[in-house]
Amino acid sequence: MDRFDAMSVLLAVVEAGSLSAASRRLRAPLATVSRKVADLERHLGTRLLVRTARRVELTDAGRAYVAASRR
Fold first, then answer.
1. CA triple 52-69-42, angle to 5 deg
2. Which among 15, 59, 13 is positioned nearest to 32, based on CA atoms?
3. Kindly report the CA angle at 49 between 40 and 5, in degrees rounded to 5?
4. Which of 1, 9, 56, 70 has its CA 20 to 30 A from that of 16?
5. CB–CB of 40/32 below 8 Å?
6. In a 10 Å sphere around its CB, with 0-12 CB exposed, 13-18 middle and 19+ buried, how is residue 65 labelled?
7. Sign for the pseudo-dihedral over CA of 4, 20, 31, 29
8. For residue 56, what is the DSSP state?
């Protein structure tokens, strides 16, 4: 897994507000975006996003990770 790429995908998801909007923005298949976020979560050993049918929300760990990623 390319962690830098996965971090970029996570940031796109957060900025776009959903996995599907991020996939359109990145011009990548939805399954790829979802897999990269899941791989990053698995690598870190924690959930970063709470996924619902309409949107995604950051967990506390996700907020901290996104803040660190932006720096």
1. 55
2. 13
3. 35
4. 1
5. no
6. buried
7. negative
8. E
**For the whole model, what pTM was predicted?**
0.91
State the 10-residue block means of pLDDT for the chain, 71 residues long: 90 94 96 96 96 88 93 82
Half-sphere exposure of 19 (CA within 13 A, CB side): 18
Alpha-carbon torsion 15, 18, 23, 29, what sign?
A: positive
Tokens at residue 69, please? 């990623």
CB distance 40 to 10 below 8 Å: yes
